[in-house]
Amino acid sequence: MKKIIFVLSCFLCINASAQTVKILTKGTKTGMRGLSVVDDKTIWVSGSGGQVGRSLDSGNTWKWMTVKGFEKMDFRDIEAFNETTAVIMGIDAPAYILRTNDGGENWQVVFKDTSKGMFLDAMEFWNEQAGIVIGDPINGKFFIGRTFDGGNTWQGIPENKKPIAGTGEACFAASGTNIRKLTKAEAIFITGGLVSNVHVKNKQVLLPLIQGTETTGANSIAVKNKKTWMVVGGDFNTKDSSTKNAAITFTAGKSWSMPAVPPTGYRSCVEYIKKKQWITCGLNGVDISNDNGKTFTNISKEGFHVVRKSKKGSTVFFAGQGGRIGKLVEEGK
Q: Are 306 and 268 a contacting pair, CB within 8 Å?
């Protein structure tokens, strides 16, 4: 009887944890890399063609808008604060940050930079007032901008405070997650290219991910706590390769562990969910780990650029090419 009960309990545990991705919408030409989940009902996305989308009912219906005057802009990141207020980031030529207070009906330019080589990669906010934006190196130093008024105004940090980049080191604007808050006052960011590092507290720590070419290295970092972080990446030119595409540290970067069973390809985004659970996505699908990155299980062959968990809830959403938006659900639902 004890054996039967044990087997049954194992089955129920496995069955309860079986998850997959439910497709909510797809079929447009928009490629989306910006995703911000305010709560379990309020989701904003941004992407190519000046497109921004908003759902107020857990992704069941969407309002789509093209930002006037920015019809050719690729908005690679978005940060939403509620149903009406959001900030979007346009990457280059020139680089822009815009803000709306009325649900996307109107957008105000709050940052513009026409500098040669300016390319914004990602934004992160500690709260509804303090935020940071990172850009690729110019003259050997990464661009860092700060806001302390909810994204209404932005200022670049002084030149002598900008992080130094190595030769061929840059950031990938793949999912808006190469920079994350680490503490209430600190941020952490990762790089790729000829060299792939994590930059924390003015230090550079070499990552154990594949690197050495312009298409390799870390694409995303997720933070569980001050010492526990996971990074993912790979080579976006070889989307099915699982070589050195993920690593986790429990020691604030002093040591790293590689998965025994890695994600099933190049991964552009990773998100911490709860307890020992992490989720990551890329061009060829979605993988989940329930054991702090020791093993990953592929749960979907649908490709996505970005995955984000609700800031004020527990729901997990995805966004990618072709207007594809997904939601993490229990299998069979």
A: yes
- Give the C-alpha separation, 307 to 303, whole Å: 11
The amino acid that residue 266 corresponds to is Y
Q: And the tokens for 93?
A: 């030529």
- Using a 10 angstrom Cβ sphere, with 0-12 exposed, 13-18 middle and 19 or more buried, the burial of residue 159 is exposed
- Partnered with residue 133 across adjacent β-strands are 123, 145
Write the DSSP assignment of 31-42 as a string of letters: -EEEEEE-SSS-
How far apart (Å, rounded) are the C-alpha atoms in residues 154 and 132?
A: 9
d(CA 157, CA 184): 18
Domains and CATH numbers, the chain: 29-330 (2.130.10.10)
- What pairs with residue 125 in β-bridges? 131
> Which among 199, 202, 203, 266 has a CA at the least distance from the CA of 232?
266
Cα(275)–Cα(258) distance, integer angstroms: 19
**Residue 9 three-state SS:** helix
Q: Which residue type occupies 309? A: K
CA angle 124, 207, 123 (to 5 degrees): 10
Lookup: tokens for 108? 């105000």
Q: Which two tokens stand for residue 159?
A: 């030149």
For residue range 213-253, list pLDDT tens digits in order.
999 999 999 999 999 999 999 999 999 999 999 999 999 99
Q: How does pLDDT run across 277-332, given as a tens digit for each residue? A: 999 999 999 999 999 999 999 999 999 999 999 999 999 999 999 999 999 999 87
Are the CB atoms for 114 and 120 separated by under 8 Å? no
- Per DSSP, what are the bridge partners of residue 187? 181
